[in-house]
Each structure stands twice: as C-alpha cells, then as structure tokens.
Design goal:
The complex is a heterodimer of chains A (about 280) and B (about 300). Chain A is an all-alpha fold and about 280 residues long. Chain A is about 80% helix and about 0% strand. Chain A is built from eleven helices and no strands. The radius of gyration of chain A is 21 Å and the shape is globular. Classes of the chains: A mainly alpha (about 280), B alpha/beta (about 300). At the A-B interface, helix 1 of A face helix 2, strand 6 and helix 3 of B.
Chain lengths: ~280, ~300
C-alpha cells in the first residue's frame, strides 16, 4: 500500500537526517542534567518538621513533575515544528515530488503516509520522554501521578494539534512562512496565558475581555490550553501539601480541560491534515 | 497496427496561471512505438505540457489521455516512465535504495526488483555505484540515475524532459544510444529537448511550440518547405553554364567568399542531380557538389523567428 510505503520512507529519511538525532541526543543530555540536579536537590532537602519526610518527598515529586513534563511538552512541540513544517513544502520546493507524484500512488497517500510517520515518531518520542522523566522523579520521591495516562493523552493531543497545523500549512505556504506562523501562534498562546493570569491583578476591568481573547487564541492554537489540561492530571493525585499549592500559574491549572475544548482539539488535529491533503491534491507541482 | 494506437492524446489543452496563459488550445496525438519530439524556446509552455501529461500540473481546460486512459489512472501510471528536467532527487539515499523505493512505488518487490535494479544501473552506466549516495553524484550521474528510475518498470511510454542536460558528450551519446535502443524495442518516447541533434536523430515526428501554441508538427523532413541549397565547386564558371543552370534550378548565384563556387537553389535532390548533368554537358570539371544541410536547428530558428515576427 502506497501510504505505508511513504510512511516507511519518511521514517527512513527522518532517521538519516541529523535533526532528529540531534534533538534526541539533546533530550538525553537534558534528562541527565535534570536527573543529576534533582538528585542533589532531593538529597540535600529537609522538609518542615510538621511533615513526614515521605510526605515531603511526595510534595517535591508532585511539584517537580510540572516543570519536568512542561519540558517534555516544549521539546515535543519544538521537535514537531522543526520536523514537520517542511513536510510537504520542503519537498515541493526541492522538486523531489516530481518523480514521486507521477508514479502509481494517490496524492493523499503521500500526505497521510508522511503524516502517519511523524505521528508515530513524535508520539513515541513524547511518551518515552514523559515516562522517563516521571520515572526519574518516582525513583527519588516515590511520586507517580495517578492520572499519568490522561496527562500523557492530552500532551499527545497537543502534539497532534501542532502537527495538524504544520501539515495543513505546508500544503498551502512555503516552509519559512509556515514555520513563522506556527511559532507565532505557539508563542502567542503561551503569552496569552501569562496575560490572562496577571489581568485580574493589574487590570480587573479588562479581565473579561482578556479572558475572551485567550479563549479565541486557544481555539486557534489549543496547545497551551491542552498543556494546562495535562498539568491538572499530573498533580491531581498528590498530597495535601501539593493541593495547597494548587494555584493558577502559566504552567498549571486547578481545573480539568473543558470537554468542548478537548473535542475541538481532536477535530482540529484530524480536520487540518485533511485540509492539507485536499490542497495538495489540487496544487500544481 | 501498433503505430496507430495512440500513446498520448491531447485535445484543446489550455493552462492559465492566474492571468498568464502558459498553454493555449494545444492538440496533438503521439502513437505507440513512435518517438515524438517537443521543441521550443524557454517559456514556450512545453514543460507545462509535460507536467500536465504526468499529472504534476492540473489543466485549466481540455482533455489528456495517456495510453488510452485518463492521466490519473493508476494502471496507466504503472506503464509510464518519467525523467524530469531537473534531477532533484532525495540525495540522502544510496543509488540502490533510490531505485528500490521507486520500484516499490511501481509495485515491484523482492528478487525481481533487485534484478531489475541491477539491469537498469548497468543500462545507464552506473553499475558498481549501488552503495554510493546520490548526494555525491555529479549532475550527469544524477541524470543517469533519473533515467534508471524511469526505466525500472519497463515502461510502454517514457517521457523525458531535457534528458541530456548536464551530460558530457559521452553521456549524451550514451543517452542517445539508450533511447534509440528503447525505440527499437517499441517503447513510445516523448522527448522534450533543447538538443536539436538528439531530437533529429531519435524522433519520428516533431512539434515546434512557442508562446503556448504549436507552430509546426510532422516528420522533421516534411517540415521543410523551403528550397534546398547546393554548393558546387568547378574549375571555371561560364555564361553557358549559368544559362543552363538557370533552366534547371530556382536560382543561381556565385559564392562571394569562394571563387569558382556556385550556390544553387533547387526544389529537391532530383534537381540536384540535374545540376551535375548540366555541368558535365558544358564540359566543365565538377570538384564537389554538396547540399547545404537543412538542419532541424535551422528550421526551429526560422519557425520561432517567423512566429515572433508575426506576433
């Protein structure tokens, strides 16, 4: 089947290209750095006398799972953007499609073959990194989020949403334009979270407007909202100490993600690649 | 008869890029087993037509059928080989991997594919380069490996867009030999080329295209509608000779650059033989009689010039 052939070929290409290898090596370096630092911090820390040491360690584990998994989210997002913004446009610009498209293969098989490869690659990367970070935390603190799989699922959905955007964009616009749009949206969603957080304190009268704007931005680029949804499940099973730390920050959420937003994100992740395939079907090469 | 079966049928083809009309009402048919050449200056629209035929570019209007089927037919694509103008291939692949991938796209598998890969590599002169990365290939080698992938499926029709660009003289000769061999095997060839000598040597019929229109089409020799010029060298030129030559030719003039040379325009080669006979009857010695070859290049340039003038 042409689709699986393209998937295998793209996987081969991704492995041969140094960018994937570079990100994986960097991820391992970051992980080692995190493990060493975390080890020092935990070994050197003394909890407050009113808390047992085990409970204190659980608190640290729960607290540290947020920045650790945020790092996973960031690395996965960056790798997704780096690997997939040129998914179609790169080959269109390079002219390599001119000997593939005339072969007995449907154009949609080319798009979904590539898409499937990156889905497998990036979700595997995200899941591996997610579990390895949590295992490092668990080994030192015994903390393991009870809803880890839900947190991972939402994190993977954020990767799929980003991939939907990059796939669609790469069928419509050149690589640089696509990359710039995705980066601006990705960073913009993050910044809107910050503004939404500080608005009630610095400009209470503008709180509703800021909130509405953040919702619109979340609909356009749901990745940050999905991260917040994931962070909720990372700490939901933690100790009372951690519950006390449950305040809204740009990195955490005290509420689960809205079901409507979750549905929207799933539709987004599926419909955008279809739009990309439709555009690629009819564009001149 | 195989010759009468169409290979490529183009009817009323029209392609516009926004306000730019690249191809306007182009119609032609090529036949099975025929080598068809497409000539035209840069920007004439010939690459656009090739891309429409190969399904890379969508037509604005008109019909295109390849081997009797619409261009999006998978069955047809299995029987067509295509070498694009620019050898933009995946340079991270080794030659063998490149051919295996394209063989898989054609639905070829296993030992048969391996055998075919070896055959086409040998055919294009790249035997022993299986393990070499395409990124290290010269432009000529890329052109050869491009031809190899186009031959993998033993196509009934091969479409070549500027196949000799980037090839050295040896490579050009090899390419011509391969194409003549394919033609002898009955493979239909559609050749889009600037190399007029190749088109002339290989093609049974030629179309000259400019500004999106086909200006002339037919066998190369039938496209010449101008007289043949012959150059004769004699020991002397006499009034009697000039008078008699005037009677058997269209025009006679002395070559200003060479003494005892005459430039004579005749309708065809039969009249050229009459010229020799006249020289003999006048008792003169004929040192040479050479037709000035009417090349496709000459025809091409004349046709394009005329089109520009009319335009």
């Amino acid at each position: 089947m042409g689709l699986l052939l393209i998937t295998r070929f793209t996987l081969h290409e991704a492995m041969r290209k140094r960018i994937f290898l570079a990100v994986v090596v960097l991820s391992v370096v970051l992980l080692l750095g995190f493990a060493i630092l975390f080890n020092f911090v935990v070994d050197a820390s003394n909890g407050p006398p009113q808390l047992s040491h085990d409970l204190f360690l659980l608190g640290i584990g729960g607290f540290m799972s947020i920045p650790a998994i945020w790092l996973v989210y960031l690395l996965s997002s960056v790798l997704t953007i780096l690997l997939t913004t040129n998914m179609l446009s790169g080959e269109i610009d390079a002219g390599t499609f001119t000997i593939i498209v005339p072969k007995p293969i449907h154009r949609f098989e080319i798009v979904f073959g590539k898409w499937l490869c990156y889905v497998l690659l990036l979700t595997a990367y995200t899941a591996s990194l997610f579990f390895v970070f949590l295992v490092v935390i668990y080994l030192k603190t015994n903390y393991w989020p009870s809803d880890a799989l839900r947190a991972l699922g939402i994190l993977e959905l954020a990767v799929l949403v980003l991939m939907g955007l990059t796939t669609c964009g790469s069928a419509f616009v050149p690589t640089m334009v696509n990359g710039a749009i995705i980066l601006v949206l990705f960073i913009g969603a993050q910044i809107s979270s910050f503004i939404n957080l500080i608005a009630p304190f610095v400009a209470p009268s503008a709180k509703d407007n800021v909130q509405n704007t953040t919702i619109v931005i979340s609909l356009i680029m749901p990745t940050d909202a999905l991260w917040h949804g994931s962070s909720f499940y990372l700490t939901s099973g933690a100790s009372t100490l951690l519950q006390a730390a449950h305040i809204n920050t740009p990195f955490t959420s005290t509420e689960p993600i809205a079901a409507a937003l979750l549905v929207w994100a799933v539709i987004y992740a599926l419909v955008l690649p279809l739009c990309g395939a439709w555009r690629f079907q009819y564009r001149d090469l | 008869m195989k010759q009468q079966l169409p290979a490529i049928e183009v009817e009323g083809l029209y392609k516009a890029y926004h306000h730019l009309i690249a191809v306007e009402n182009v119609s032609f048919t090529t036949y099975r087993g025929e080598a068809f050449g497409f000539l035209g200056p840069n920007g004439a629209g010939k690459s656009t037509i090739v891309k429409i035929i190969t399904g890379l570019v969508a037509k604005t209007q008109g019909t295109v059928r390849v081997l009797g089927q619409p261009i999006n037919s998978m069955e047809t694509r299995r029987r067509v080989g295509y070498l694009p103008e620019l050898p933009n291939f995946h340079r991270w692949l080794k030659a063998q991997e490149f051919l295996e991938f394209h063989g898989h796209l054609y639905g070829m598998r296993g030992a048969a594919l391996q055998k075919r890969c070896r055959e086409v590599l040998a055919q294009v002169g790249l035997a022993g380069k299986e393990k070499q990365k395409l990124g290290t290939f010269s432009k000529g080698m890329l052109q050869r490996i491009g031809l190899a992938q186009a031959l993998l499926n033993q196509p009934d029709l091969i479409i070549l867009d500027e196949p000799v660009s980037g090839l050295d003289p040896v490579g050009q000769h090899d390419m011509r030999t391969i194409l003549l061999h394919l033609k002898a095997e009955g493979v239909s060839i559609f050749l889009n080329s600037h190399q007029l000598a190749d088109v002339e040597a290989i093609c049974d019929r030629v179309a000259i295209i400019d500004k999106g229109h086909i200006l002339k089409m037919g066998p190369p020799q039938s496209l010449f509608d101008e007289p043949l010029t012959i150059d004769i060298h004699l020991n002397a030129i006499t009034h009697e000779l000039l008078h008699k030559l005037g009677a058997v030719s269209l025009s006679v003039r002395e070559d200003p650059d060479a003494p005892c040379h005459l430039l004579i325009e005749v309708q065809d080669e039969e009249q050229a033989a009459d010229v020799a006979a006249v020289v003999h009857t006048c008792g003169l010695r004929l040192y040479s009689l050479a037709p000035r070859h009417r090349s496709l290049e000459h025809l091409f340039l004349n046709t394009i010039d005329m089109s520009s003038y009319q335009g």
